[in-house]
Amino acid sequence: MTKLQFEFRTYARPFAKPLQTRYGLWEVREGILIRFRDREGRVGYGEIAPLPWFGTETLAQAWNFCNQLPLELEPFAIAEIPLNLPACQFGLESAFTALRSDAQPVTLPIQRYAALLPTGEAALTAWRSLWQQGHRTFKWKIGVKDLFTEMAWLDQLAQTLPSEAQLRLDANGSLTVETAQAWLQTCDRLSCIEYLEQPLPADALPEMLEFSYQFKTPIALDESVATLAQLQACYDQGWRGVFVIKPAIAGFPSALQRFCQTYAVDAVFSSIFGTAIARQQGLRLAASLSNPNRAVGYGTAHWFKSPDSPNFDALWQNL
């Protein structure tokens, strides 16, 4: 195949309200859009959207890598992107795949998207408008306030949610063994809890495996399985619970596809708050690899000030 014209540019999208997580306040989503063009005029877009607190490269490292690439790129060079740049692996291989494909956009009914609620007490009312839009699965981040306050909020939320609603609790690895046990005991008595996500830090897999045997509430891994190497390691160590997979930081999409098809894991594909480019490429993978009985974690559009255009040419020009 002939060389590809390679272009890239940064973007910054402010959140409508800062997102509070255990990692602090997140006010602006920054990343890199890339574009390939071949001699026939075909175009493929990709997105590099690192999450360094999940163990990926930083935005600066991704930018430096892109700057080192030639503006006329041989396709085989994509396969040589090193393992310590998983967001770059995703972005460039996705763009190359898009260049060669005329696949139609993936669309899912809104009830197939899990909507992210605001952190803290605001979740007690924020779910209502999202429910009216059609969402039936909600995600709420915990571990940012004290245990008893958050548990009181959870009780209120569980009492007001409709019986068809499902709630995912995401601790982002912030709990201790003792507080995780307290959360799981509470979750076990509530019918609305789908799973508790990443209760302990990424290196605490033995303890989370033990929890999966002790409690009926399913546990999902997220930070523990950020990259393909971590996915494989956790599977090899016996994890058979839920895998929350963020394809945009996992590495090469082709390798991720092989992993999921080989092991048929209980996967929930999830957003990294990227643009429509990364979301669409993630949804295309999710369509065949994510557990169809679980909502995908892409209900995040309402977190941004400006709507996300499905027109990738317009995104390239305007972001």
TrEMBL record:
It comes from the Bacteria. Mg(2+) binds at residues 170, 197, 222. GO terms for biological process: menaquinone biosynthetic process; phylloquinone biosynthetic process. Residues 120-218 form the Mandelate racemase/muconate lactonizing enzyme C-terminal domain. The active site is at 141 (proton donor), 246 (proton acceptor). Its EC number is 4.2.1.113. Keywords: Lyase, Magnesium, Metal-binding. Pathway: Quinol/quinone metabolism; 1,4-dihydroxy-2-naphthoate biosynthesis; 1,4-dihydroxy-2-naphthoate from chorismate: step 4/7; Cofactor biosynthesis; phylloquinone biosynthesis. The keyword Lyase applies. CDD domains: OSBS (cd03320). It is an enzyme of class 4 (lyase). The keyword Metal-binding applies. InterPro entries: Enolase-like_C_sf, Enolase-like_N, Enolase_C-like, Mandelate_racemase_C, OSB_synthase_MenC1, OSBS_N. Its cofactor is a divalent metal cation. It catalyses: (1R,6R)-6-hydroxy-2-succinyl-cyclohexa-2,4-diene-1-carboxylate = 2-succinylbenzoate + H2O. One of its GO terms (molecular function) is magnesium ion binding. Belongs to the mandelate racemase/muconate lactonizing enzyme family. MenC type 1 subfamily. Converts 2-succinyl-6-hydroxy-2,4-cyclohexadiene-1-carboxylate (SHCHC) to 2-succinylbenzoate (OSB). HAMAP family: MenC_1. This is o-succinylbenzoate synthase. The gene is menC.
